[in-house]
């Protein structure tokens, strides 16, 4: 494989509808917006946080790179297309972002395309590999993008479980290819498809030369590890150790967390596999600093989510702004509208830091995705 892979603004007023007085008071609902809602930029005045004046960035600590450092990097994601009912294609279910309107399935494809867009802007020499159900009608013809069918159970209830299985199968094929062509090294970053890579990640494999795989962590007692970003060094030894590690996670998932198979099971299994390792110090998750640990024979690099898997808080809660060194923004849940809006904004402004201000100003709102 060769070196990889991939970016809006409107205002309106929320209308509140009340039931007639004769009706019992409605339950409080989480309002989702069909447009960007800009608020104050969190983190103003705090050190090492992005400072914004409107959507204009006032400080920058790095210049987004235009080429990978060192060997090639490939991004790997799992994506499938589900059959939609007639109702899903009705006009009432359309979502409009900018000048485009999407059905439910088209929304997913739009997010996938924007995922590729961000990578191709920040790391134009890298590749994207999409692992998918062979039965899925996934027609995506993009330069440096490969659709890779893998047999399995991609049903919604088992997708997170299947994702780990697909990762393991993919790593097994890489081992076979390396045996035939040992001189070709490509590193891999397994991610969700709702992330935006906003800085070159090629340095990761040079700055931390001793890890086999990397995970992202946060200060969360129950779910300290997020499965949306897993990096694997492209050597045969590292790929083998990463495969064995993921096989152990799959075993834990299947035996302990099947009740959470639709969501969170993979993250709970990841945390179990790490926390149950003798001598592991959970206090290391409380500080946003990278560290290396041997877990079951694999050298695991733990990277802070604040830099490599930053998610805009949604709704209430503490929000200390956006770290200046952020490299990956994760648009979980209904933040996917914000992901599409951000790409549209970047396409018109060509400034990633200004785009990050847009994300920062919009990040606490629930949107309609």
From TrEMBL:
Record bears the keyword RNA-binding: no
Position of the signal peptide:
1-21
Q: Which domain of life is it from?
A: Eukaryota
Name of the protein described by the UniProt record: Nucleotide-diphospho-sugar transferase domain-containing protein
Coiled-coil residue spans: none
Write the record's keywords in alphabetical order, separated by commas.
Signal
